[in-house]
Write a structure and sequence with these properties.
Length: 290
């Protein structure tokens, strides 16, 4: 394949961010009405919600409302499984525009310490949060992966009816990083580069409101998948070379998914344009596997 045709592949690809063989550990579709506090998620290994009275469910999603002097409130669950080496963890939720006329209103969700809190300062959950905060009616998701309010990540699909997530994985054994992902309608990593994190204070998952009337939350889900390695990224057919015979399977991974661990050229979970660029570079240089 020529450089020109390979460039066409680069232009046409959708950025993919999948977790292969993911097992759903916890899921809540909030198909009940009333206060969230004390209720049990739809799928859970155990544990009930601890939530401020402002958090309620309307039969389909979390519909929260707070007072002017108490809107930074939390709802959380004990971490349902320990975070262990060799796995990839993705916490996701679907956000919908809430009742607020404030387009910048946020609902923070992610990984927190044992008793999540926020006093509206730059540090969220005393700097322990590994989280994101989709805006109410803007093309923006605030990046809180460092534990501090950060800059907004632009998301072309907006935030109404869009599923976002926080993904944790290792770059080397016990060296953990986090990325923000969009899972639907477009499957892509939305934060770069990966953010180094500490798991020392992570004991719960949940939500922290950042507004009087924050965005609605639905499909709150934690899934876990094994971290799989590839001895020669780009060698899709395992013949010891990165060449034209690998193009079809690599392209299939970009568009359709499948067995794609060797398509992750930078060896981080989730296919992005960086993987495409690295694959093209190795392809054009006829790189042999070590």
């Amino acid at each position: 394949m020529t450089k020109k045709s390979m460039c066409g592949v680069v232009v046409l690809v959708s950025i993919i961010a999948t977790s292969a063989h993911a097992a759903i550990i916890l899921h809540d579709n909030f198909n009940r009405s009333g206060p969230l506090h004390g209720t049990t998620p739809t799928i859970t290994p155990g544990g009930a919600w601890t939530a401020h009275s402002g958090f309620a469910t309307d039969g389909t999603r979390v519909n929260a409302a707070f007072s002017l002097f108490g809107f930074t409130e939390a709802a959380y669950l004990p971490l349902p499984v320990p975070i262990t080496s060799g796995n990839v963890y993705t916490l996701s939720a679907t956000t919908y525009r809430g009742l607020s006329t404030d387009n910048t209103a946020i609902m923070i969700f992610g990984f927190f310490d044992a008793t999540p809190s926020w006093n509206a300062s730059a540090a969220v959950d005393e700097g322990h949060a590994i989280a994101i905060a989709p805006r109410n009616n803007q093309h923006g998701v605030n990046n809180i992966l460092t534990g501090f309010i950060g800059t907004d990540i632009f998301v072309a699909d907006g935030t109404n009816g869009v599923t976002f997530g926080v993904r944790l994985y290792e770059t080397t054994p016990n060296n953990w990083v986090a990325v923000a992902v969009e899972l639907a309608p477009t499957n892509q990593v939305i934060s770069s580069p990966p953010t180094p994190i500490s798991l020392a204070n992570i004991h719960s998952i949940g939500m922290i409101s950042g507004s009087l009337l924050p965005p609605f939350i639905d499909n709150f889900t934690l899934d876990v998948s094994p971290a799989i390695s590839c001895s020669c990224p780009g060698d899709m057919n395992a013949d010891g070379f990165i060449d034209g015979r690998d193009i079809q399977q690599f392209t299939q991974c970009i568009f359709s998914g499948g067995s794609c661990i060797c398509a992750e050229m930078d060896e981080t979970p989730g296919l992005t344009l960086a993987d495409v660029a690295a694959f093209v570079e190795d392809l054009l240089s006829a790189t042999a596997c070590p």
